[in-house]
Amino acid sequence: MTLTPGPGIPTGLWYKAGPGVRIHPTAIVEQGVTLGRGTSVWDSVHIRRDAQIGDECIIGEKTYIAYEVRVGHRCKINSCVYICAAVTIEDGVMVAAHTVFTNDRFPRATTPDLTELRPSAADDHTLPTLVREGATIGSNCTIGNDLTIGRWAMVGMGSVVTKSVPDFALVLGAPAVPVGAVCRCGHVLLKHPPGWPPEHQNLTCSACGRGYHFDKGTTTEVDK
């Protein structure tokens, strides 16, 4: 890991970059950012101070990553994604184009008397979001706050996530609701009516052969 002057910002501000990091000359990488080995940062990306990006990630064009955000290893953050403060993304996550994260449940521009602009920095109103390993978030999604998107879950394109998503769940809609279960490999294991998961089913992925047990919306892996 080496210290490198940040492109697009005043001389003397530095970020940490591992070997093989590629940064487009139009990207802005602020002071204190950490970029893991083999990570690529594409054009017009803006990564704010003290954010941490893991190894072998792809940060797509025009994406914004706020200060102190944590992104794990081998993640794909596609074009025009907005990741606000207090978001943590674990290893192997895909976030598709034009997805927006949020971190304020009751946002206002000003104080109630309209005399002062509320600051944009994190405060007591800032709520966290956690995206667990292997999850996929489809394009044009809006992700709420004070919630978790579970391991290997899949959020369908255009969804609005307002509640936590279980591991391996397939969720769709606005607001997003569970409509099935997915395998680690991404293939659908089971579909069910929105909000009405069945009981006690043993499932085998038709694509890769992995086994699962499904019961009322909870999916667990079965060792073979």
Rg over C-alpha atoms, rounded to the nearest angstrom: 19 Å
The largest sheet has its strands arranged as 3-6-9-12-15-18-21-23-24-25
User: In total, how many domains does the architecture comprise?
Assistant: 1
Major sheet characteristics: 10 strands, mixed
| Basic shape | globular
Which percent bin holds the helix content?
under 10%
**CATH homologous superfamily assignment:** Hexapeptide repeat proteins
Q: Detail the poorly predicted runs.
A: none
Briefly summarize what is shown.
By secondary structure, this protein is an all-beta fold.
Architecture overview:
- This protein has 224 residues and is mainly beta.
- It has one domain: UDP N-Acetylglucosamine Acyltransferase, domain 1, CATH 2.160.10.10.
- Helix content is 0%, strand content 36%.
- It has strands spanning 2-5, 14-17, 22-23, 28-29, 34-35, 40-41, 46-47, 52-53, 58-59, 64-65, 70-71, 76-77, 82-83, 87-89, 94-95, 100-101, 129-131, 136-137, 142-143, 147-149, 154-155, 160-161, 169-173, 176-182, 188-191, 201-204, 211-215, 218-222.
- The protein is globular and about 55 Å long.
- The model has no long low-confidence stretch (mean pLDDT 93).
Q: What is the element layout, followed by pairings?
A:
Layout lengths: L1 E4 L8 E4 L4 E2 L4 E2 L4 E2 L4 E2 L4 E2 L4 E2 L4 E2 L4 E2 L4 E2 L4 E2 L4 E2 L3 E3 L4 E2 L4 E2 L27 E3 L4 E2 L4 E2 L3 E3 L4 E2 L4 E2 L7 E5 L2 E7 L5 E4 L9 E4 L6 E5 L2 E5 L2
